[in-house]
Design goal:
With 334 residues, this protein is mainly alpha-helical. It is built from 17 helices and three strands.
């Protein structure tokens, strides 16, 4: 696959030229995506409030659909941070703050980390920002027994996809970081205060019990799916990671980011983020243009897709083997 990609790239237009064709937003498509994501989400909230009077099982069923729209809202928030959703950066920031508010995610803090992630993805010497923490075999073996145990717990699927999603969106997103400026910290505190006010207002309007019975399942389901998408985008069987002296932005974008091929309905709900190899090559491409970019450029079609079932293999991958240049499971250290 790697040789095929490199050969095709030599005979294709430069990646910058390809990306430039799609590197601008379409206002009508952007506004329509915002409408068909936020309005159904709010409408489902209203229906779920009503469904509590009939059966909570109906409410839980509806929460899966609401969570799907919340994931789609998060993708809009994600695009706004890249400055790709609208031509106006002020509008990107405004809509980004609002959609991030709905997704319990602070705009400025999250996008600072996410831009760092884009600049360092696949770089073994710059791990840690916006990534799922991954050790090399050598690093793992040098750790104490206690720290090895902690890492095993951290990388276990029950923690990563059962506990961590809740901790990230409810707790971690609320906390400041050392690198943040005073202004950035104030933005985060204001977001937290606004969120607390909205929660109390909602509880006052529909009751604390009704609010929690609706919000917690929706947020939890959306968080699990969001974290899973993020995980398989850079943690999969044939991923390529390199040290800084060999690291190349273009090659790592194509070989260090996955093409997660999903059924058309799930592709819609996830805002085409499965075309992640293209997104890392051109983060200014709006999500609704990623499928067309993939279809019109054979260079992107050489990347072997990951399906839902094949992505499950990544759950066993916990360490980076520098000798074999691949992700491996804990069994490799035996």
């Amino acid at each position: 696959m790697e040789n095929g990609t490199q050969t095709l790239m030599k005979s294709s237009p430069s990646w910058m030229e390809i990306v430039s064709r799609y590197n601008f937003s379409d206002p009508l498509k952007s506004w329509w995506q915002l409408i068909n994501s936020v309005i159904p989400y709010l409408a489902l909230w209203a229906v779920m409030i009503w469904s509590l009077q009939i059966s909570y099982w109906i409410t839980l069923l509806l929460s899966f659909f609401a969570a799907g729209f919340l994931v789609r809202i998060f993708i809009i928030f994600h695009d706004c941070g890249h400055g790709s959703f609208f031509k106006s950066q002020k509008l990107n920031r405004t809509i980004g703050v609002i959609t991030g508010f709905l997704a319990f995610t602070p705009y400025h803090k999250w996008h600072h980390d996410h831009k760092e992630h884009h600049a360092t993805v696949g770089n073994l010497d710059k791990r840690g920002t916006g990534d799922v923490n991954t050790l090399t075999i050598e690093e793992f073996l040098k750790r104490s027994k206690w720290n090895q145990f902690r890492y095993r717990i951290y990388r276990h699927p029950i923690f990563l996809f059962g506990i961590a999603p809740f901790l990230v969106f409810v707790l971690q997103n609320r906390l400041t970081k050392k690198y943040m400026s005073r202004k950035e910290k104030w933005y985060l505190h204001l977001t937290n205060l606004a969120l607390i006010a909205a929660i109390f207002l909602s509880m006052w309007a529909i009751g604390w019990k009704a609010y929690l019975l609706i919000q917690l399942p929706v947020l939890y389901i959306a968080a699990i799916h969001g974290l899973w998408l993020f995980y398989v985008q850079h943690q999969y069987e044939n991923v390529v990671w390199k040290r800084s002296n060999e690291w190349n932005y273009k090659d790592i974008a194509l070989e260090g980011s996955s093409y997660f091929k999903l059924p058309i309905v799930l592709q819609w709900f996830t805002g085409n983020i499965g075309f992640h190899h293209i997104h890392h090559l051109g983060p200014r491409i709006p999500n609704y243009k990623l499928p067309l970019c993939y279809k019109e450029n054979p260079i992107f079609q050489t990347v072997q897709p990951i399906t839902f079932f094949s992505s499950l293999k990544s759950l066993k991958l916990r360490l980076w083997d520098e000798k074999k240049h691949k992700l491996v499971g804990f069994s490799a250290i035996r």
